[in-house]
Design brief:
Chain lengths: 367, 315
């Protein structure tokens, strides 16, 4: 039996036969599988463009269930309603208008259809509300002798309150710049971080700034993505934390000024700051925009932007339609005429009061 | 996973089927000629002065076959460099649901070396394949850059040799790294491509005598049959993977069911001078496909290749 086993093992003819059979099997398996090609309608006709856009959103957009429960959007009903508006003879401007109207049903500032002649959008998240921000008035608080660190503009106001204006998170912020800024503001009694009209930018930049306002690892929210074409196919939410920055960190009371134009990464920054002790949100509700947008396209070549990744707050609640402030303060018209920013003044008063309370507390401890 | 109901015979499928039929036919021929030209013969030393021609004398039956020196002479290794120009068609549904097409350039560096394994019937091959393409969508409104580098190393066993024809088969270990970048997209501008696979490889050679010149025709087919590849999940952002370290099935086991790919290389070596150098012209056809985590990908490229082959005597 042992002799038979070894003769089998060293039978070259048998091994050649096995090898050729395996190779033929592999090549045959591959040959039976067809090409992996496009799945979407590809003809550049109004109907194909409509169907491609609707299906693209259907399989990739991440807020259908939420939008259905909050604003009553039924994407299948939208398909039937807008399909009736598509005709073979419509020109590209007409097609663009109909497709943009369809996308506007979602009331999502991260959903856009971009053509060479226009960008379809729904900005009702701020257009339907007062702005609560006047650029000229805000600039008067900075004056002309403010400092600039990585795009952040800051100065110390007359009552020893620090004021930082952050207009965008599109550009990176250097760690050294942040440390210099906080060092310059170290003797202030409180800090105002003004992110009004900040439309967003890089999430990593927003988180880098937020990390200067906490001394411990802090749960700030959850994130999940789609893992399939179904409207409910999501991954398990993963917790998001902000870890304290290694450089200088702010230890005193902070007020973050917000308005309806705080969107996307700024909304996420406000969400993170809201999780930290000693931080107060003051102003109007933010615009929202908690979905991280991806880009695709339709046959005509127009690009489509849509919310693809969902970010929740630390209580697993959506912030897609904004974060409410701790203290609601709206800009008074007569304040604007007097070149007075109602929100900044309210923040200063709040910080002075907090500062006095802290001083009283210290005096009580000493006694 | 690809639906097996999708059985339309495309040109791509016909190539694979043809190769399978050829292999099976050769196998039958081998079985029919058992004992007539037994491959278990001793390889004689190839005379370098004879250029590309060498002799392989049969054993008990005394039949002789013509073999290129570069593959059967244990003293000779071959090195070739080829440059290619052609066209590519790339689809990556993480970036766009539609294919992008455009020109491609390719460089292939190959080294072939006989070994002493199994009495000289095993040869070693390394392949370095670099490609780059600039692509455009159908409407001309967006562009993509695609490219990468593949390194393969493997061994081929001489299964059959008769007359001027020889057939080898073996396995290659192959690793690829590259990517596709869309110049217009926002948070999903690029898709990284990386895989490590074991490829089944077949290599057929034929020495063609034309006007006292021996041209070596060579056809090689590599088919990956198992390995691992990187892929984001269906709607997962690279921010989640690399900035946050959130893993979600990003390394996927691949096999012909979800990565049905083929890489063809057809070349003709035309000797120059005394035969240690040859001009190599040919065709490279790469059909790389994958459906991983619901994301569809293909990269079809056709390149006209030209270059040179040099043989070196090992001391």
């Amino acid at each position: 039996m042992k002799k038979n086993f070894y003769s089998l093992l060293y039978n070259r003819r048998m091994w050649r036969q096995i090898a050729v059979n395996v190779a033929c099997a592999v090549f045959s398996c591959v040959s039976l599988v067809s090409c992996i090609g496009e799945e979407y309608p590809a003809d550049d006709t109004p109907m194909d463009n409509f169907e491609a856009l609707w299906r693209l959103m259907d399989e990739h957009y991440c807020f259908f269930e939420y939008k259905k429960s909050t604003i009553g959007v039924d994407w299948d009903e939208v398909h039937a309603r807008y399909r009736a508006k598509i005709t073979a003879r419509m020109n590209e401007r007409q097609l663009f208008e109909v497709l943009c109207q369809m996308l506007a049903e979602l009331k999502d500032g991260h959903v856009n259809l971009s053509a060479g002649f226009d960008v379809g959008r729904n900005w009702s998240y701020h257009e339907d509300y007062p702005e609560n921000f006047d650029e000229a008035v805000a600039r008067s608080y900075l004056g002309t002798d403010y400092s600039i660190a990585s795009g952040l503009k800051y100065r110390i106001l007359e009552d020893n309150i620090g004021y930082v204006r952050c207009e965008s998170f599109s550009d990176g912020i250097g760690d050294g710049n942040l440390s210099y800024m906080l060092s310059d503001l170290a003797l202030c009694d409180g800090l105002i971080v003004d992110v009004r009209n900040n439309g967003g930018g890089e999430l990593t930049t927003a988180h880098k700034l937020a990390a200067r306002f906490t001394n411990e690892k802090c749960l700030t929210g959850y994130i999940c993505h789609k893992k399939g074409k179904g409207r409910s196919d999501f991954s398990a939410p993963k917790p998001e934390y902000i870890e304290p920055a290694e450089g200088l960190r702010w230890q005193k009371p902070t007020v973050v000024l917000t308005n309806r134009r705080c969107y996307s990464a700024t909304n996420d920054f406000v969400k993170c700051m809201h999780a930290f002790p000693g931080v107060t949100l003051l102003g109007d509700k933010t615009g929202g925009g908690s979905g991280m947008p991806f880009t695709q396209e339709i046959p005509h070549g127009w690009s489509v932007r849509y919310s693809a990744v969902v970010c929740y707050d630390r209580d697993m609640q959506h912030t897609e339609f904004g974060i409410a402030p701790d203290t609601l303060v709206l800009m008074a018209d007569d304040d604007v005429l007097r070149r007075r920013d109602t929100l900044i003044e309210a923040a200063r008063a709040l910080l002075r009061e907090r500062g006095n309370n802290m001083a009283c507390g210290h005096i009580a401890e000493l006694e | 996973m690809i639906a097996m109901s999708d059985l339309s015979l495309s040109i791509y499928s016909l190539r694979g089927l043809t190769m399978a039929i050829v292999l099976w036919s050769v196998h039958c021929c081998m079985m029919a000629q058992e004992g007539v030209c037994d491959v278990d013969t001793v390889v004689t030393e190839c005379s370098l002065q004879e250029g590309l021609v060498g002799t392989l004398e049969g054993g008990r039956t005394g039949c002789g076959v013509m073999q290129p020196c570069m593959w059967d002479n244990p003293l000779v290794s071959t090195h070739s460099t080829m440059f290619g120009v052609g066209a590519a068609n790339v689809l990556d549904t993480y970036l766009s649901p539609y294919s992008y097409t455009g020109p491609e350039v390719r460089i292939v560096r190959e080294t072939g070396r006989p070994t002493k394994l199994m009495r000289g019937r095993v040869s070693n091959q390394t392949l370095v394949d670099v490609n780059a393409s600039y692509l455009e969508n159908r409407s001309g409104t967006a562009h993509e850059w695609a490219g990468g580098i593949r390194y393969s190393i493997g061994w081929h066993y001489l299964f059959y040799a008769s007359g001027s024809f020889s057939l080898r088969g073996g396995l290659l270990a192959s690793g690829y790294i590259g990517g596709v970048y869309n110049t217009r997209n926002g948070n999903n501008p690029a898709q990284a491509k990386a895989d490590v696979t074991v490829d089944v490889s077949a290599l057929a050679m034929y020495v063609l005598s034309v006007a006292r010149t021996r041209i070596v025709l060579r056809y090689q087919l590599n088919v990956p049959f198992l390995g691992a590849a990187f892929s984001p999940n269906y709607g997962q952002s690279y921010y989640e993977i690399f900035s946050r370290g959130d893993y979600d099935r990003n390394v996927v086991f691949v096999y012909p069911g979800n990565m049905p790919s083929m890489r063809h290389l057809f070349t003709a070596d035309i000797p120059v001078g005394h035969g240690m150098t040859a001009l190599r012209v040919g065709y490279s056809g790469q059909f790389n496909q994958a459906v991983l985590n619901g994301l569809r990908y293909h990269s079809y490229s056709h390149n006209f290749m030209f270059g040179f082959v040099k043989r070196f005597k090992r001391l």
